[in-house]
Amino acid sequence: MNALAVIPARYASTRLPGKPLLPIAGVPLVLRVLEQVRKCGGVDRIIVATDDMRIADTVENAGGEAMLSPPELPSGGDRVAWVSERIPSKIVLNIQVDDPLVGPDMIDPLIGALADEGTALALLAKRIENEREIESPNIVKMAFDLNHRALYFSRSPIPYARTPGATYYKHIGPYAWKREFLLQFSRWRQTPLEKSESLEMLRVLENGHSIRCIPVARDTIEIDTPEDVAALEALLA
3-class SS at 6? Predict the structure, then answer.
């Protein structure tokens, strides 16, 4: 199997408890994400990794595949690695359960990026056009070098606009790992910056490894607040 997609779906979301089961225009969020990933021809198998039987039952009743993972795993990446240890593949995709607009135009470029021998982890970068997102701690900002290798991720605005004209990017949607690197990542302890920002990508940078950033034109709506739910339902309508 070339590409395994894992959707980590933890019940105890800080901002929206039970978020994977939250109805979006009548359909549970986790099922909307699952349906979008099913459209991706490059994905061979999809697993919803959850710590809650209610989520697993919802997925399986809709014809999907779920695995119950340990609730004490510290991050979505660790939950994805736990599944990957049990299901071998070349590439492992981490698909966020709060991103029901994910699609082939986001996933296929990530799979393609891992064809590069020097790339073990790739994610998407979207230019920020709404200035309110720059200050929002719910939006993960990012900076990368001229070769599109990540320099830093933060919930704070980066770069600091000492002079006008700064361009801001945010991390959105899924990301893709080479399986061997993901399993290596899962054995590392959480790092100081990762704990401070609550961003697992920083564990990779703090251990001296690179992340490929793939610019993407289309934006998405990630579900973190009731306002996000309203915005998505308005879009779907």
Answer: strand
Q: Which of 61, 2, 66, 5 is closest to 38 using CA atoms?
A: 5
Coil, helix or strand at residue 46: strand
CA 36 distance to own-chain centroid: 14
Q: Determine if residue 63 is left, alpha or beta; phi over 0 gives left, psi from -120 to 50 gives alpha, anything else beta.
A: left
Q: Max alpha carbon distance in the chain (Å)?
A: 54
CA distances (Å), origin 197, targets 16, 193, 194: 19, 6, 5
The answer for residues whose C-beta is within 8 angstroms of residue 95's C-beta and 6 or more apart is: 5, 6, 7, 33, 37, 102, 107, 174
Domain CATH code at residue 95 = 3.90.550.10
Contact criterion met (CB below 8 Å) for 43 and 2: no
CA nearest neighbour of 175 among 130, 127, 111: 111
Q: Beta strands of the chain (E only): which ranges?
A: 3-9, 23-24, 27-28, 45-50, 66-68, 91-94, 121-127, 141-144, 150-154, 169-178, 212-215
- Angle, helices 29-38 vs 53-61, to 10°: value is 50
236 with 25: CB under 8 angstroms? Answer: yes
* Structural domain that includes position 45: 3-236
Domain count, the chain: 1
pLDDT interval class at 184 (50, 70, 90):
very high
User: Tell me, what's the pLDDT at 148?
Assistant: 96
> What are the pLDDT digits (tens) for 129-158?
999 999 999 899 999 999 999 999 999 999
